[in-house]
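User: Predict the complex.
Assistant: Input components as received:
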Amino acid sequence: MREPMRYDVIVVGAGVAGLVAAVRAAEGGARVLVLAKGVGATHLAPGTVDVLGYADGHRVQRPLDELPDFIGAHPGHPYVMVGAEEIEAALKWLQARVAAGPLPGYRYVGSPGENLLLPTAVGALKPSALAPASVAAGDLRDGGRLALVTIGQLRDFFPALAAAALAQVDGVQARAIELPLRAAARNDLNALGLAERFEDVVFRESVAAALHGRLEDDERVGFPAALGLQDPDGVWSDLQERLGRPVFEIPTLPPSVPGIRLFGILRAALRRAGGRIVVGGEVTGVEAERAHVRAVRAHVAAREQRHSTDWLVLATGGFASGGLEMDSRWQVHEPVLGLPVTGVPDPGAPRFTPRYFDDHPLARAGIATDAYQRPVAPSGERLYENVLVAGAALAGAAPWREKSGDGISVATGYRAGGQILEQVTPAAGGSQTTVSTEA
Amino acid sequence: MQTTHSPAVDGVLGDLVRGSLDHCVKCTICETYCPFSKATPLFPGPKYSGPQAERFRIGDEPQPDASVDYCSSCGICTQVCPQGVKIAEINTRAKARLHRERGIKLRDRIIARPTVLGRLGTPVAPLANYTLTSRPLRIVAERVLGVHRDAAVPRFAGRTFHGWARSHSSPPGTRTVAFFHNCGTDYYEPDVGEKAVAVLEHNGLHVEIPKQGCCGLPLQSNGLFDDARAYVRRLTGALAPYARAGHDIVGPATSCTLMLKREALEILGMEDEEDVRVVSERTYDITEYLLAMHDRGELKTDFRPLPQRLAYHAPCQQQGHNIGKPALDLFALIPELEVVEMDHGCCGIAGTYGLKSEKYEISMKVGDGLFRQIGAARPDVVGCDSETCRWHIEHATGVPSEHPVSVLHRAYGLA
């Protein structure tokens, strides 16, 4: 390109944090481009929004009530800069986007005021603030009787395992039913393939027929989260009607059908707001003048393309998504801007502990920021004026332990988008020296 | 057993492509987006056939599992992979090796050579077109060759784009571009090439049309890598002088421009060939080029209202350019044009895949969701950047399909 393409905001990463930031900025009138190496973690996560499920060893019932204590105890946590009010606003905003999305009747219920208690595919109870209504219908705060149903061909959901674990919870009775229906020609059916089958009314009829006479009156019926992709609310309602009792979805192994729905909803919102998205275009580096990123370089098929931008939102995720990388010499780095990664144990010190759900020394590694989500050096000095970090790339959280990952992503993405809309152009200045960071 | 390293495709880039399989974390995102494994149990999916099976493809040992043949090389898996695994490239190379091991069908050798077919068919276009539309002859062709009787095949135009180009004199412009016309434009749709040139010239560009041939993509798709390389060499030899002189190369056929940009390097392993490299860096898909001009304020926007409803389908290969959907941004400049974006994914044809008798039904099933989405949108026309996709979509839906540049041509009032 001889001259650059120009954007108000470039968001790197197409997970929840990136898409939320992009949609909010685009809806506010900014010209937005999302660049992502591939499809994001939405397709792997259950599609619920967990704001705070566990704090210091106990299960959280009311996240907003506990947030002040939690923030006090975790000074480097992303929630410190976001605060309860913004979390609440961000979740409401997300609910409105889902309700206005392309899936008729599909909606997210719940609030950060009180957690739902949702059964997982292995029969654990997961505290979530928001969930699709069809998932939230499995809420076990008041216990209940569950019949967990699956189609034998699905290899990724074992209701007997879930039922055995749930049956040990006070006030919960659970049993498993495996239907020997042949849903597809292939043997290795996954949740996505099953979701497509559930779109077919004839298939739903056959499921209802196979369950006829096998359910107790006060049982709720749990299915793997595969109740449709194009019209999930229609599929859910139809099954409830046919079975004459409440039906709910349990998120299971990837591909995550509720997560794919959420991705579709946010992508549609972005397009409606005039934003562009390029999946498969990996960012290879940026050009900066002093503390301002001026352009982003992305790999297109044969070459690099340069996109000028006023703002950059870094929403590339943590280690699992490649937003943070550790090399064979145990050096940790951030590949887009080369930002310093904080929270990495010293050489020789243990990075992990033996038990998976323990607090691992490396767990809170990430990008440190100022209160406005701008990246800072270990000295506290601001590195870029027009870069905001959102989501799992941020330092200070242990999301899978806290059950806070999506809450952080929604809240920091929402806040990043909002700040860009609010802020006047950052103060000009700095030399014309061009600094490049290479991936 | 003694094993030797296969010399067919390697090189540093080739090793990197294969080595990328180690980044696979089995997250299933490629399976989620693969249009072909959804449509047929004969294809177990990109993850299984790609990063998993590739580990067992060692040296010259024969491949025991032929299921990768049902991969269409549409490339969607590579685009969506969040870990950077070159799944489609691995599978295309595995497919080629499988074909070499098991012998390449006469049919595949024929349909992989559109220039040869074009040269044979053009002078006798009425007769050739009769052959292609005659039911009894198509049944014979299916039995003898294995080209499905119902598959959409194009009609010979009876004239060629390169013939038109010889007598066309492009006015001087602010800048010179070299026009890369593909075989489909040359023999079947010369009007698409003529309109593309008119649109470029309308925007002040001087268009040079060098003598050129096929990019080799159909050969590559059918496992004839050596022949494909020879075609790429010839074509890039013709285009490289323009690239070296600082001229951009612009083409309307999105899969062919992608072949020059990337696939010849990553799949055919030609990254060390100087002509290929310079051409690849200078090649643009025409919508990409026009949108970049618009972003620089260089595109004329004197569009007339086009009161039509257009369904836009971005072909898989267009998505492989990693440039988003420039056609949508260009359409947005046309007054009164109502555009509905199709987002169902692949139409199913995948170049020559859907022509094959054993794959036609799969191809129709892959496209079913798109065809229904098009039907529901009730468009006057389907916009689509790839000629084989357009033919397949017209065949399946009965809705006429146009290249985006033809739509721009009408909106400029150049007709």
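The longest helix of chain B spans residues 225-244.
Let me know if you want any component modeled separately.
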